[in-house]
Every structure is written in C-alpha cells, then in structure tokens.
Amino acid sequence: MEQNELVVQMKGISKIYPNGVAANRDVNFSVKAGEIHALIGENGAGKSTLMKILFGLERPTGGEIIVNGEPVHFSSPTDAIEKGIGMVHQHFMLVPSLTVAENIVLGMAPRKSGLFIDYKQAVDLTKEYAEQFNLHVEPTARVADIAAGMKQKVEILKALVRGARVLILDEPTAILTTQETVGLFRELKELKAKGFTIIFISHKLNEIKELTDRITIMRGGKTVGVYETDSITEQEISGLMVGRDVILTVEKDQSEPKEVVLQVEDLNFVNEWDKRVLDGVTFSVRSGEIVGIAGVEGNGQRELVDVLFSLKLPEKGSATVGGKSLIGLPQAMIRELGVSYIPEDRMTFGIADIATIEENMISDRFNQKRFNRGPLFKMNELHKETDQLIVDYSVLCKSRSQEVGMLSGGNIQKVVVAREFSSDPILIIADQPTRGIDVGATEMIRKRLVELSRAGAAVLLVSADLNEVMELSDSLIVFYEGKIAGYFDDGQWDDIMMGEYMLGLKRQSDEEIARASYA
Amino acid sequence: MLSLLQSLFKPDFLFAVLRITAPILFATLAAVVAERAGVVNIGLEGMMMITALFGFLFSYWTQSWVLGVLGAIMVGVLLGLMMGFFALKLKTDIILAGIAINMLGAGGTIFMLNMFTGLRGNTGNLVSPNLLIPTIQIPLINKIPILGEILSGHAVLTYVAFLCVFLVWILIYKTPIGLNIRAVGENPDAASSVGVSVLKIKYIAIGISGGLAGLGGAFMSMYYSQGWNSGMVAGRGFIALAAQAMGRGEPVGAMLSSLLFGLAQALRTKVSGLQGVSSFLVSMIPYAATLLGLVAYSISLKRKARKHVIKVVKN
Known about the structure:
The complex is a heterodimer.
Chain A: E1 6-16, E2 22-32, E3 36-40, H1 47-54, E4 62-67, E5 70-72, H2 77-82, E6 85-88, H3 100-105, E7 111-112, E8 116-117, H4 119-132, H5 148-161, E9 166-170, H6 178-193, E10 197-201, H7 205-211, E11 214-219, E12 222-228, H8 234-242, E13 260-270, E14 276-286, E15 290-294, H9 301-308, E16 316-321, E17 324-325, H10 331-336, E18 339-342, H11 346-350, H12 357-361, E19 372-373, E20 376-377, H13 379-392, H14 409-421, E21 427-431, H15 439-454, E22 458-462, H16 466-472, E23 475-480, E24 483-488, H17 495-502, H18 510-514
Chain B: H1 2-8, H2 11-36, H3 44-62, H4 65-89, H5 94-117, H6 145-151, H7 156-174, H8 176-186, H9 188-193, H10 198-224, H11 236-246, H12 251-271, H13 279-282, H14 285-314
C-alpha cells in the first residue's frame, strides 16, 4: 500500500436521530495509511457517533464511506471487521468469566472433531499474536482477574486476530495508570511502524501531542479542522474544541483545616467474590480541606464511597460524621447529617433520567417545610428554587420541565452538582465528579468544590483523573489493593511518584500512613 | 421415629430419590441452559405440562414410547422458540411470556386433551403398559447387593437425565455454541461486537431449554404418573428454577440441588406414612425447600439486575 494513501474516507456523513437530534452534520473525515490520527472534541461533539458509524454500530442518515478506495455500507460490526476495521471500546467488550484466549476467539473459536472448542489452539493463537505485536497477555487467565492495562491489550489483540488494519481506540487511556499509558503508546507506535493505522479518540491534549500525526477536531457535530499535530499548540486545540480558551488549572488558597468531619476507622469490605476490597482503611477528612483519593480503578475506591453512602455494608470498621455513624444508615438520614454525594454513575444514582430537571433538583428537599402547604406543594417555591439553581449552575436547558435525560453529560452533571452543592453540606463525597463531561462543566465543578471547601466544607474527592486529584487536593491518599499505600499532605507530588504508589511499587511505612487520621 | 430413620437408609428409599429427582433434574438443566444465555425461563412449569400431554398423546397415536418422547422434545423445542419469539422478537417481557406459557400449560392442556381425546382432566383408560417408558436392568451392577438395588432398574429416561448433566456440561464448556451462550449471557455487547448474533444464541439456548423441559414432561406422563393428569407437574418447573439458582448455573451444581429437592420430595412420601403426623404439614416439605431455594434465587437475581442496570447505563 502506497504511503499516504487514504484508507478511510468519510464524506458528508450525517446522523440525525428519529427524535431530531443531529449528532453528525455533513462531517468529512479521512485517515491516511500508517498514521496515528487523533479525533478530538468535547462530549457531544459527535466523535463517538462518527466512529460508531465507521464500525457499523450505527447507520448514517447521509454521506458515504470509502474504505481502501471502495465504497462500503456497514450494517453491523461484522461488516466493518471484514473490511479490516477494528474498535477498542471505552468500556471493554469482554466477558469477565471467560479466559483471555476464550475472549479473543469468541465468535471464531477453533474447533476440533468438528464439535468441540480447540482450547489449546485458541491459547496458541493468542500467544502467537501477543508475541508478534509485543502485547503481553496471559492467555489462560480469567479476564475478571486481570488489570485494565492487560484488558486493553486483549481488546487490541481481538481486533488484530480478526485482521484489523485500522484500529479505532475510544479514549483508551481513561482508565490506565501513567505507566500503563506509556506502555500503550509504545505498543501503538510499534503497530504504526508495522503499517497499521490508528484512530485515537481522546480528551487529553498532552497525549495527543505526544502520540499522533494528525488531528481532526470536532465541535457541535461538525468537523472544525484537520491539522498536522506538530503545527498546532495545545492552547490552539483547546480553543478550537470549545471555542474559547479554557484555563485548565484551578486557583486555590492554602487550606486551613479545622475539626475532623469524616472519620473512617479500620474499614473492611469483602465483595461478593470473597475478595477483600477494603482492608483496614483509616483516615480523616477535616473541615476546610479537600482530601483526594487516587488509585487505579478497582483498588477499593468505589467500595469506600459505597460504604460511606450506605450503599454497601462493611465487614467491620466504622465511619462517622460529626461523631454519628454512617454505617447502614438510610441515605435520607445521611443527608440530614449534612453529607452530599456526587455519585460516579450519575445516570443510575445521580438522576432519574425521565424525570424533569426540576424534579431531580428538588428530590432531596421536596419535603422541607418551605416547599409544602399541608398535603400540597408550594409549586411557586419549587419553581423559584429550581430556576435559581439553573442560573447559579448555568445549566443549559430549554426549561426546568425538560427531561434530564435529554441534556448533555456535562449539563446532567451540573443538575446533580446544583442539588448536592446547594444543601449546605458539611461533607461532600465527590466520586469522579468530572468524568466524561466537557471542559466548561469540569472547570465549574472544580472551582465550586474549592470554594465550598474554603468556606468550611470537608471534601472527599475520588477521581481516576490523576490531574484532577493532584490539582484539587490539599492532601492525597493513594489506594492500592484496598489499603492506603501513601498519604501526602505537603502538596509535593507528581504523576511519576503517584504512579509508583498506585501500582504498588512503593508503599509508605505504617507510621506515615497513620498520619492520615487526625482523630 | 426410629423406624422412619431406618427406612431412609433402605435401598428402596434411595431408589425413590433418584426416580423423583429425574424430572426435576431435566427441568433444572433446562433452566441452566436458558439462564447461561441470560434468559429466565419461567415458563418451565407450563412447558412440562404441555410436553407431558403431547408426549403421552404421541405415544398413544404412534403406539411407540420412543416416538412419544421424541414428540415431547419437539413440542418442548417449539414452545421454547415460541417463548423466544414473544420475548426476543416481539419484545414482551420474558417473565410475562413465561407466565403465558404457564397459563397455557394449566388450562390449555385440559382443553387440548378434551379436544383430542374427549377425556376430561386425565388420560385414564388410554394408558397401557407398552406406551410407558420401560425400565432397564443394568448388567453386573444389578448383581451388587445394595448399590444394584439403588442404581439398577430405573426407567431409561432416569439414566438419560443424569447423562444430560454431563452433556449439558460439555455443551456449555466445551463447544463453540456453549462459549457463545456464556458470552451472550454475561456480556451481550461483547458477543455482538465480535459478530456473535445474540438473538440467534438466545433462540438456540431457549430451544434447548424447551427440549430438556420436554424430556422432563415425557418422564412425568409416560413413567412417573403413568398417564397424564392435570395436576401432575405440581410445581416442578418452579422448583427447577430454585434448583438452578442454588446450583449457581453449573450443571453439576444443578444435579446436586435437584437431588436435594428429590430427597425432600421422597421424604414427604415417607413421613406421610407415619402415624400422628399431619399429612398437610408433611406435604409442605418439598415446597418449603423450594421456598428456601427461591430466596437464594431472588438474591442472585437481584444482584444480576443491579449489575445489568449499571452496565446498561455505562453503555
């Protein structure tokens, strides 16, 4: 194949959903053979839709797709795979209880005696490809037991085994550690050297600068521009993406922590597969400070939050707010203690998507006296409250009676945050508060968190975005395998050091870790 | 009490346990195959009722018990596919589709029996020994004193039931279809992303499930009850769902939990023969056991539903 030949051309692609929402409007996108091409844009810019169309998961309402010079019409991923297009999804498309080899051969399992799976051949095939492409995986390990980095390799191998020459990676670094990301980039560059073409979807500008050759920027369902990566600065990209310059750092004063608000003592949790996911966790969060919890996902952070908000019961240990135990308390009572909660999974725990903005915003306060007159609501008061919150948190919507589910991710999160931040909380548990939302909303949420903490709230921030925890936190706790691996309160941390603690390469002494508790 | 205990250790009791377990085992394996593909086959009870009737009718019409059993399997597969059609193609809630089949099993069978034979409620005088599933003596094993009395002399289908444990295990773990079934049941998106047709796999699984239920139905009318009557399945289809859950969807686990329910049922028969024990109380034993099993089932279902919600939302 000739260098610089276009392997994929998408011309004038439109995607208009039956409800009238246009995700793509006359989008042009093309990729040269053997390049790493970044596709970037805010949430809702239409890049995921465009890639779903290219992978046959969605059908365009207009436009044409040309792969290797030949017009194609994909009606399913199988068609796309046949034409050499593979996709690594943001949420892994793996079956946890199957082994790595079984996942790789799923749908094309080698047979023996015509009837049975030739498992050995599946393992050999996996090994062969793993070696050829320097993607090391354990063929016989169950996917449930392997780390995110390896799962990603399995996904890449899955595509390669199926003959993919063009790989679409949808935000592949979102769940990886710094070290794993470095490894992934090395592997991708190797693939590029072997002549593979890679489409790389990301929000992270530094990664794009480091890895890619060209960039296509999307905004509002359209292509804004195509650039050689070397010819454009991060600030320029950011400007094109959001249409304005976003300051990616948060201004904050030195914290002055006061009394302990949240005290966690020797918390232990064993999950349904008998794995000890929280192992003797002890720490405090004091009024006026932001305590960040960093860690690779799956090291107990989620369980910690679930226990604190009484979604799970710990095996042993205690968690108290202002001296009152949270364990097993109904959520309404936890809220009465002054605890606010920004859940990681906003669509399930943060909002009710078919309810209105108003109903979602008042869901924690509708039974307060000021909104009720006998058995009836004071509707005017509710409207006033909601409208005020919509203005205060600049929620972009048609009206307060719009369905929350129709909003963009960033605006949905603004609804959650408006409710949670406006109830005068003494403790805010913020779990991945800015995951997958646009830069504008992210910036606002971060700024408000700092403001609230400086006004006296205690903030527990759990985030997989290393930059976020490092930037916002006054002190940092690193989780590794359900334990605290390190506690840092001097503000002196960088990502290399965090990575070492997050991956378990380093661990502080018990005395150092004990400093996390101020009780 | 002592005499009861003594009688429990007699070969004829253990023989009875195996005999009583067989139909539950068929139904439990049927539940396992469906469950592994992510389909809750709550229509097992009705499927067994209907296949029991047709198994008997086919054997009566053809005067061959083999064709009767095959007919029951065929009707079972068709019922499975029908339920699949309702749930997968027409997008009815699978639970409702299952309940519809159960209603059909309860009322429709009486109607069909009447339509085909003019009889009411049971097959009565149509039954003749040549229509029933024969029993076989296993050579050599039937010579072993106690073991022979327990293991030998069962109906052909009793052995088939236990053989099916192995076959279902092979199916699930050693064949490409089984791999697809497990993948579809656990992460349908993953399966479809590599070109596995989720719909097709679910149809296959529910079809196999129906076929296994058909074997269970045939066993009931063509051996266990020696003819069809309207109350004969008596909750075995639901007991099977409990047994499936207790066995955690594993074929061997399914067998062990089926044996447990078989034991409870056999125990009832024994205890009800005792003086001074309320027969109403005693007849509760298998159902109380089922209730406990179902509690286990609902807990596992709840967990699964929660995971499902989260998964749906994330995608």
